[in-house]
Write a structure and sequence with these properties.
The longest helix is centred in the first third of the chain and has 17 residues. The protein folds into 3 domains: 163 residues, no CATH class; 280 residues, Alpha/Beta hydrolase fold, catalytic domain (Rossmann fold, 3-Layer(aba) Sandwich), CATH 3.40.50.1820; 95 residues, no CATH class. The chain is an alpha+beta fold. Helix 5 links the parallel strand 20 and strand 21. It is built from 14 helices and 27 strands. The strands form 7 sheets. Strands 2, 3, 5, 6, 7, 8, 9 and 11 form an 8-stranded antiparallel sheet that branches. An 8-stranded mixed sheet has the order 12-13-17-14-20-21-26-27. Helices cover 25% and strands 23% of the residues. It is globular, with a radius of gyration of 26 Å.
Length: 571
């Protein structure tokens, strides 16, 4: 009798597995005659308002995503996506409810890198899009198709990736915006193939008419810029469409507001009294993310030194920068906020001030909303009888958008080995040591959230900015006093204000010398608040390039070497 029951159970289990949907994903030889490496992403959406690939997000309305790695996938060969594929937000295909879906597949292509550290890795090289798998040139994709999943039915769906994302054109120079691209010797050596750095350079009015002038340099740090944004020489058309709605700001017509702010900046930039300077946005997208975090890293290579000692000198040479630390400043928000503070800390003599808005965690004692060194799990607060999920994102009322676990599982579906091209994975890629397999050591188990304390210790000693300042204040303090400015909304969507509170306490406490720093908070302000309490967040976030000018000028007047050029650029 027991043997019969076991046989029936096995038969039912096999039948259930057999009845689960299977997707056979292929690409034709017309798209590639050679085998391809990468990540096959299968997306199922409940609406076709936009393509399924554009519907994957941290929002509750996200499309469903599954991912599998492929190595040497040949044209016509099937990549099978079935119940074993890891998914987000549903873990498995077997968890999907019957019904109608719009399906699309994408092959996010990987290249092979033979690095100078002896490791060979497969990664998605940026192709001019800023590490966006949805639009990366050369990625293969299928046309969306409608399917119906039926309960208990044996179903196999063929999905053919016969489309390809087109190349992205290079931005063109204008009167005020110039573009520069160099091959980096340091990065080329590390990655074992040509690697480039670029920048968009906003040159001052009167640049050609004043060949004797030499200019201060401001780095506007942030995510991958396809061109210099927020600057236009013509006003927005009077009849410009204003029907667009931005849910985050609860406002209609934001595109026109953005265009008007860009034109207003142009008018200020060319006005008689505006100080003449160079403003640059750096292009340093890499195989892990849309930028490098502007520091040296075991996994990304020496991006900090390459930017500092290769790219910046070339920009200052071509565009007549002063080329000394007293005449360089950094500012930015979010990733750019962390980068601004980081370059001030790691290259203290090379910059005269940083303005870090809503920075990524500047101490890992408050790594968003948990302590990386004391907590055991990144996804749950754990007690003897209960596990409470950690929130990942919120709005200004504290209403939770998603959990930390959900964001990380989305990344895990997008890519193994820290290859999602997204936020938690890039922190891991930048901050972690290299693992035995050549990929970043996991700071925590991506599936369960269990934190690796040995990796956390490495993070603290190399990239915890508050810890480094405290540890090295005797030598760092005299070099950064008066240079640190930090701004953050007290309802930052990613809980980034928690680390700022700790940094503020530290900066207030230090002596010999005192920090001479500035820390300010925006009441109920969300992410990207950058220090202006007189304007709503949706306006101030568009004014980075004008907000800190007065403070920069005061800093130059108060801190410059004898004989410094304070006049040639003030025409």
């Amino acid at each position: 009798m027991n043997r019969l029951l076991l046989t029936v159970f096995v038969w039912i289990s096999a039948l259930t597995t057999y009845a689960q949907p299977i997707f056979s994903v292929t690409f034709p030889s017309t798209q590639s005659a050679k085998p391809l490496d990468g990540r096959v992403l299968l997306i199922l959406a409940k609406t076709n308002k936009v393509e399924p690939r554009q519907q994957v997000s941290d929002a509750v309305e996200t499309a469903q995503l599954f991912g599998i790695d492929v190595d040497g996938l040949k044209p016509g060969q099937s990549a099978t996506v079935d119940a074993r594929a890891f998914g987000y937000p549903k873990r498995s295909l077997k968890d999907l409810a019957p019904g109608d879906y719009y399906v699309q597949a994408v092959l996010h292509k990987y290249e092979t890198f033979k690095r100078s550290d002896g490791h060979t890795v497969k990664l998605p090289m940026d192709r001019g899009e800023g590490q966006k798998w949805q639009t990366a040139p050369g990625n293969l994709l299928s046309k969306p198709q409608k399917i119906t999943l039926r309960s208990g039915a044996k179903q196999t769906f063929a999905v053919v990736m016969d489309q390809v994302n087109p190349p992205i054109p290079e931005p063109k120079d204008t009167k005020f915006i110039k573009h520069i691209k160099i091959q980096s010797e340091r990065l080329t050596k590390f990655w074992g193939r040509p690697m480039y750095l670029g920048a968009h350079v906003l040159i001052p009015a009167g640049f050609d008419e004043h060949p004797e002038a030499r200019y201060p340099l401001c780095i506007y740090h942030g995510h991958f810029p396809d061109d210099f944004a927020g600057f236009r020489e013509t006003p927005p058309p009077a009849n410009m469409d204003t029907t667009d709605y931005i849910e985050r700001f609860h406002i209609h017509g934001y595109k026109k507001i953005v265009a008007q702010e860009a034109y207003d900046f142009y008018k200020k930039w060319t006005s008689k009294d505006f100080p003449r300077m160079l403003i640059i946005e750096i292009q340093h997208a890499n195989p892990y993310y849309d930028d490098s975090y502007a520091v040296n890293s075991e996994n990304l290579g020496p991006y900090g030194d390459a930017i500092m000692y290769e790219l910046l000198p070339e920009i200052e040479k071509r565009f007549r920068g002063i080329g000394q630390g007293w005449a360089r400043f950094a500012y930015g928000g979010s990733t750019g906020g962390w980068e601004s503070l980081a370059v001030q800390v790691f290259y203290p003599d090379e910059f005269n001030g940083c303005f870090a808005a809503c920075p990524d965690p500047i101490t890992f004692d408050a790594y968003t909303n948990f302590n990386l060194y004391k907590d055991k799990n990144a996804y749950y607060a754990e007690g003897p009888f209960r596990r409470t999920p950690r929130p990942g994102q919120r709005n200004y009322l504290g209403q939770v958008k998603c959990t930390t676990e959900e964001s990380n599982h989305r990344e895990l579906a997008l890519g193994t080995h820290s290859r999602s091209g997204d936020q938690f994975d890039i922190w891991e890629a930048v901050y972690s040591p290299v693992g035995k397999d050549g990929y970043p050591k996991r700071i925590w188990n991506k599936l369960t959230g269990e934190i690796d304390s040995t990796v956390a210790t490495y993070w603290r000693e190399h990239y915890d900015l508050m810890h480094i300042l405290r540890r090295d204040w005797k030598t760092l303090g005299p070099k950064v006093t008066g240079k640190i400015h930090i701004y953050c909304g007290d309802m930052d969507n990613y809980y980034l204000n928690n680390a700022v509170y700790l940094m503020e306490d530290f900066l207030k406490s230090v002596k010999n010398p005192s920090a001479g720093s500035e820390v300010a908070y925006g009441d109920r302000a969300e992410h990207c608040w950058n220090g202006d309490p007189t304007q709503p967040n949706y306006i101030s976030r568009l004014r980075y390039n004008t907000m800190y000018v007065d403070k920069i000028l005061k800093r130059i007047e108060a801190n410059h070497p004898p004989g410094a050029d304070l006049k040639s650029w003030r025409y």
